[in-house]
């Protein structure tokens, strides 16, 4: 009976995944994509310019990294070939990916020198001829570098920006729905005790304690009946490859919460975009409640039933 129920559930959600993909495709207006691309490309050029200036046009890369680890995003794209975070961390074990985040933390001078040495070994000589010539770059050389690597950086960032924007819209839809139902919004705080969130109360962008790792952020936490908290994750994917990462993130959190809290925390995922049916099946097998942005009525019915 359980097996047949799961099979039927997977068939249903495979159908919903197809609907979600069609909704995503239809929502991709070429004019909106072009506008996003223009904005992201401009931002990438600003990032490159900032990194060049901070490093005295690559003459003093350690100084730039001491100022901000965020500059490493640019430096990785000036290597030949451009190198991913994971690959660079292999060739430069002392480098931490987290330092590259926006407004990244400063890097200590000795670490910065080690990282800069790894960069220098892989620096694209044709793109940066002034460094070996020990002179200031010509305007045309800077322009060439900008127009060469800006699209590489922008092509990665545009998908993240579009996903983040869609996920924010998901979160607004849920919080608005809860407010309209009379739910009370609580200030975000660490949830580290059982029944920390009363029934019909919710928190937006809060953290849930785990026993095995640092607290895991949850997009929306909802207090249900019987002191159960629904940990809702809002996930948007641009393609089926990306859906693996999004689902892995949900499963990682779900397992951490399940290990620490057992049945007192129920994980849910609100999905949107291109999600591979096999990835949805992984969520179902793990006991995650699955909902879709194009069918919020199902989520609303679930909430009404359990609160």
Structural topology:
Blueprint: H1 2-27, H2 30-54, H3 61-67, H4 72-76, H5 85-91, H6 109-122, H7 129-133, H8 139-180, E1 184-185, E2 190-191, E3 201-208, E4 216-223, E5 229-237, H9 240-261, E6 265-273, H10 277-285, E7 289-292, H11 296-306
Parallel strand pairs: 1-3, 2-3, 5-6, 6-7
Antiparallel strand pairs: 3-4, 4-5
Helix pairs in contact: 1-10, 2-3, 2-8, 3-6, 9-10
Q: Helical element count?
A: 11
- State the end-to-end distance: 27 Å
Which residues form runs of ≥5 with pLDDT under 50? none
Number of strands: 7
**Helical content, roughly?**
55-70%
Global Rg: 23 Å
- Tally of distinct domains: 2
Provide the structure class: alpha/beta
Would you give an account of this structure?
The protein is of the alpha/beta class and 307 residues long. Helix content is 56%, strand content 14%. The protein has two domains: 2-28 and 166-306, Trna Endonuclease, Chain: A, domain 1 (3-Layer(aba) Sandwich); 30-159, no CATH class. The protein is built from eleven helices and seven strands. Strand 4 (216-223) and strand 5 (229-237) form a beta hairpin. It is elongated and about 70 Å long. It starts with a helix and ends with a helix.
Question: How would you summarize this macromolecular structure in one to three sentences?
Answer:
With 307 residues, the protein is an alpha/beta fold.
């Amino acid at each position: 009976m359980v097996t047949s129920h799961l099979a039927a559930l997977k068939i249903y959600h495979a159908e919903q995944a197809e609907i979600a993909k069609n909704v995503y495709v239809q929502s991709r207006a070429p004019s909106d994509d072009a506008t996003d691309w223009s904005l992201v490309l401009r931002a990438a050029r600003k990032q490159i310019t900032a990194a060049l200036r901070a490093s005295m046009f690559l003459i003093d890369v350690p100084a730039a990294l001491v100022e901000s680890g965020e500059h490493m995003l640019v430096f990785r794209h000036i290597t030949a070939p451009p190198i991913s975070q994971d690959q660079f961390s292999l060739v430069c074990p002392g480098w931490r990916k987290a330092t590259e985040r926006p407004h990244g933390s400063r890097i200590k001078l000795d670490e910065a020198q080690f990282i800069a040495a790894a960069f220098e070994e892989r620096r694209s000589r044709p793109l940066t001829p002034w460094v070996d010539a020990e002179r200031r770059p010509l305007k045309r050389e800077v322009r060439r570098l900008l127009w060469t690597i800006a699209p590489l950086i922008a092509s990665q960032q545009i998908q993240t920006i579009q996903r983040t924007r869609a996920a924010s819209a998901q979160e607004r839809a849920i919080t608005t729905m809860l407010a309209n139902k009379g739910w009370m919004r609580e200030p975000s705080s660490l949830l580290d005790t059982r029944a920390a969130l009363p029934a019909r109360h919710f928190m937006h962008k809060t953290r849930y304690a785990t026993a095995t790792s640092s607290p895991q952020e949850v997009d929306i936490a909802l207090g249900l009946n019987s002191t159960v908290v629904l940990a809702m994750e809002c996930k948007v994917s641009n393609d089926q490859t990306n859906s693996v990462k999004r689902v892995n993130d949900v499963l990682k959190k779900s397992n951490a919460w399940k290990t620490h809290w057992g049945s007192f925390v129920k994980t849910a995922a609100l999905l949107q975009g291109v999600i591979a049916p096999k990835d949805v099946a992984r969520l179902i097998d793990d006991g995650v409640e699955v909902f879709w942005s194009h069918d919020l009525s199902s989520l609303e019915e679930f909430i009404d039933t359990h609160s």
